[in-house]
Amino acid sequence: MSSSIRTAKDASTERRWRYCDFLKEAGMKLKVPQLTIATAAVFCHRFFELDSQNAQQFETAVMATACLFLAGKVEETPKPLNDLARTSHLLQRKASDPTRLESSQQELHVELKETILRAERVLLHRLGFDFNVEHPYKHLLSVIKRMSQAGLIEEESTKTLAQVSWNFANDSLRTSLCLEYSANHIAEAVVYLATKFLSSKFELPKKWWEAVNVDPEISELIGNRILDLYEQTGPVELGYSDIST
Fold this sequence. Notes:
The protein has twelve helices and no strands. It is an all-alpha fold. Helix 1 (about 5-30) runs antiparallel to helix 2 (about 35-50) and helix 5 (about 80-90) crosses helix 7 (about 105-125). The longest helix has 28 residues, at about 5-30. The radius of gyration is 20 Å and the shape is elongated.
């Protein structure tokens, strides 16, 4: 790989981590559901990975805010633009003097709200008004249910397996996997990875995946991408870890 290609790839990865971290913080401050954070992350991936030209028009955090704004409407968990603008500004200006921030709040918020709305319009056109996003969460629960029904794991082990798989699914959002694989393949992969992580807690039969139609080759590829992420950043989840949220 040439140095220029490697540099561009590194810059793209660094930007992805920035907007994922931003979405996690903003989402938690605004108390939006994990599904909304996940949808916003997919919108960001689609925009920044597929539209490098328009990506330069807005700051990363501004476009991430627009993605969160749109995701809230798509997932029927909308947040007022005022709240989004305030949270976005505070996260972007953590080091600012709170007194100065408060004194210029109205002017800053009017400008930022207009910028977020412009970013949303660009985002809408880039997405082609296609807001359909399928996440791996329900699929991974289905895989685990099939494993239980096939007698591969005990009932008391399903919650632990589901929780670890869910965490891996959250972490996968920090990569571009959602652009490259189906939600079902990612779901199978995170369950497959979770079984390795939990191998000391319960033992599965050899080639257990055949009983529940899990593709081990694709699961290995996806799982290795998630593990590569940990080598670079450590296990930092995008969103909430509890499957009940």
